[in-house]
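Dear H.,

Thanks for agreeing to be a second pair of eyes. The structure we're designing against is below in token form, covering all 371 positions.
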């Protein structure tokens, strides 16, 4: 195995990459040619505690694309964990490859040894392309894996509480926009009904929302419609965005809000489970200028990380669900600060997260006996 920190990249797969000043504490490149492992672990901050974030297994078109993704995702995790009130910093990992073809016990256990080599600075969990059984294999080589399967003492599928948090944030949006947290009768468009989106549809259907959905997977659409025959399927995301909606919920991959989609939006509210929804800085201002209430993604989708963090203390579903339910109140705090300071909610959320990282993070400078 070979581990190459970003401060001294070696030859081979990761050679020739630049060294952008991103504010990260540590970026580690991991390779094990025999198992096929090529991974990047990015630690943005440990000011609040060990960096916590999932491992994404994805067929990136290039190492540069993987690096850009892990840098963005790890920074977002620092803000997500801070705003969620967790004693964790932000980190993320990506494994380059097709999980349907390249995933193996040897690869995952090799990855686990690299995570272990970081000595607890990074705690990993599931993300796109990884699941609780994968974390069980990673955990056979290190103590710093969560999101494990119930039969191994874990919490299982984190998308359940992620969706619960998105639903609570959406209720807070409805209260702010229309004076009533109920989503009954509201027309909600959900883009992506996989892990998180399908559970979100369950909550919306139970409340009597008028639901439109789209997904690139016909199987995912069929499963949702089998559970909820009243749900309407639209052809694609572009059609969904242009539909007459009250709420647009992006629940697939990132970049859903950009220079093309924002002008086309009819929805009064955007609140969904996808990561990195804003394609670039300035989109949050464009949403505000159009009168669209945007609930910042890393606030909205924190239920999953709340769940896996709870697992580290011995998982209790009701306790974790209550903590995820508090996203409702945090969303209201973000909107109140945004109005008070005259800034978009995305800026207000950043300010709240940064304030906690400063105020609580500084306490680590107070030395305790034996440290």
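And this is the sequence the design step returned. I haven't edited it by hand at all.
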């Amino acid at each position: 195995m070979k581990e190459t920190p970003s401060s001294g990249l070696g030859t081979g797969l990761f050679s020739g990459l630049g060294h952008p000043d991103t504010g990260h504490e540590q970026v580690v490149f991991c390779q094990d040619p025999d198992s096929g492992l090529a991974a990047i672990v990015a630690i943005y901050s440990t000011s609040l505690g060990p960096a916590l974030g999932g491992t994404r297994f994805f067929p990136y078109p290039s190492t540069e694309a993987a690096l850009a993704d892990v840098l963005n995702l790890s920074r977002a995790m620092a803000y997500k964990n801070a705003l969620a009130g967790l004693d964790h910093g932000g980190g993320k990992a990506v494994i380059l490859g097709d999980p349907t073809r390249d995933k193996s016990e040897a690869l995952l256990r090799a990855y686990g040894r690299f995570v272990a080599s970081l000595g607890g600075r990074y705690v990993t969990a599931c993300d796109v392309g990884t699941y609780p059984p994968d974390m069980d294999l990673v955990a056979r080589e290190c103590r710093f894996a969560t999101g494990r399967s119930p039969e191994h003492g874990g919490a299982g599928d984190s998308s359940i509480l992620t969706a619960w948090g998105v639903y609570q944030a959406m209720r807070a949006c409805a209260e702010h926009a229309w004076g009533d947290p109920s989503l009954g009768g509201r027309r909600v468009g959900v883009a992506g009904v996989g892990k998180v989106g399908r559970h979100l549809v369950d909550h919306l259907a139970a409340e009597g929302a008028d639901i439109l959905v789209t997904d690139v997977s016909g199987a995912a659409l069929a499963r949702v419609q089998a559970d909820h025959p009243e749900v309407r399927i639209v052809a694609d995301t572009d059609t969904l965005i242009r539909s007459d909606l009250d709420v647009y919920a992006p629940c697939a991959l990132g970049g859903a809000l950009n220079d093309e989609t924002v002008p086309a939006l009819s929805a009064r509210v955007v609140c969904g489970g996808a990561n990195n929804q804003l394609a670039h800085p300035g989109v949050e201002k464009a949403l505000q200028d159009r009168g669209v209430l945007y609930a910042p993604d890393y606030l909205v989708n924190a239920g999953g990380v709340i769940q896996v963090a709870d697992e580290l203390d011995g998982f209790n579903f009701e306790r974790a669900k209550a903590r995820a339910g508090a996203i409702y109140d945090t969303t209201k705090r973000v909107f109140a600060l945004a109005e008070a300071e005259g800034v978009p909610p995305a800026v207000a959320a950043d300010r709240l997260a940064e304030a906690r990282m400063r105020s609580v993070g500084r306490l680590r400078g107070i030395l305790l006996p034996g440290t």
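Two observations from my side: The longest helix spans residues 63-83. DSSP finds 15 helices and twelve strands in the chain.

Warmly,
E.
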